[in-house]
Amino acid sequence: MKAKPGDWLVIKGTHVDQPDQRGLITEVHGADGAPPYAVRWLASDHEATVFPGPDAVIVTAAEQRAADEKARARFTQRSSG
Known about the structure:
The chain is globular, with a radius of gyration of 14 Å. Helices cover about 25% and strands about 30% of the residues. The protein is of the alpha+beta class. The protein has 1 helix and 5 strands. The longest helix has 20 residues, at about 60-80. It has a domain at about 1-50. The chain has one helix at about 60-80; strands at about 10, 20-30, 35-40, 45-50, 55-60. A hairpin with an 8-residue loop joins strand 2 (about 20-30) and strand 3 (about 35-40). A 5-stranded antiparallel sheet has the order 4-3-2-1-5. The protein starts with 7 loop residues before the first strand and ends with a helix.
């Protein structure tokens, strides 16, 4: 797993009713982008040092923007339809 500051750490929910957790990576403490990461969690604004497990993925800032735009477009389409 490799990341850089500005990327997003997404931890997948383990149950159907459990949402994904998303946090902004503010610092990378490992060599060559490896963990641990300083992460500011979106839901709580809490910052923590994280060693991600197998349920985590790194999403670049560009990928996150594209996903947000796609979700926003889907929501707008449902709201106007």
